[in-house]
Amino acid sequence: MKPNDHTWDAFSALSVADKAAALAREDGSPFHTLFSQQFDRAGLDRLCRLATVIRTLAKTRKGSDFLQSLLPHRRAMLYFTQPSSRTYLSFLTACQILGLRTGGVRDTSTSSEFKGESQEDSIRTFSSYFDMIIMRTREKGLAEKMAFALSKSERPVPIINAGSGKDQHPTQALLDIYTLQRSFERRGGLRDRTVMFVGDLARGRTVRSLSQLLLNYDNITQIFAAPDPLQIGDDILAELRAAGAAHFTTSDMRSHLPATDAVYMTRIQDEWDTKSGDSADIDTSKYKITAAEMSLCKPDTILMHPLPRRDEIATEVDSDPRAMYWRQMRNGMWIRAALIATTFSCTTRILEYYENN
Ligand code: NCD
Description:
binds N-carbamoyl-L-aspartate; four-stranded parallel β-sheet; 357 residues; globular; 14 helices; alpha/beta
């Protein structure tokens, strides 16, 4: 079944798996990157390996020139109408690594949407000039709606979801997986581990996307530590149950630190408060990491954060070798370059060049 056989209402009622299948290429591989459920273990392993190869090649002038020769004939549009600095810059630099040219809109007040143009018409306009659209928006599901709309047009260019509402942030989940995989690769790999998510799990899209991606790895226990009003959504818990994945929720972060291999901190997402100061009334004081909490962790536990942080990780922790968030951020540039290269079918060329040089 292909999306152009359907109305949007019929398409949007499909399960995530069916939507992904309908939007995939003929060989089943992702064309758009919309949800983390599109990735399987083999695809994740290929992307992580490609990210490491690109990282290695980019270290030398010769390798970097080769990478930049891959896609100078392609253009990517960065459509970021929600605040962003690191995701925007990491996509921009990922494009530069591969020689893609970029253009962008970051503020709808400077685009024709301000004149009343529909988002569908805007996206169709972008697809006339660009070969890929990378988009971050406040609306849940907008990236898939635009992918659907483009699938009916004469230029169905790939869309990459760089964060959609409170729902999904698949490329953050990819960089988180790449970080976990690199951290554990010399210690038996990413399996038989406990990952604890902490903070605003109700509205943090990075946690939702990563929790789904972790289902591709064997024997991962997921702990969700948050005050009740900020606890992870029932939809995610239902998916973990359906997958038979070990997991539990708790309001006691501290007592689980000694048994955790990766702690994933998040900030309070108060931009989603319905009235001002809503979440300020919630006591989040027990969900912070200082040197005292790090002393409860194992010597090789890693501490992650999608950033930006507020006070949930004290700056004194930055010098702890277990603090992974700055390296995690840089990993984003490499895995996004790998994703873009894969979307434009450059994987074999890169791997062959790497083997032969
Ligand atoms: C995250 C996001 O936008 O969801 N930021 C990011 O992309 N690294 C996390 C956040 O804003 O808290």
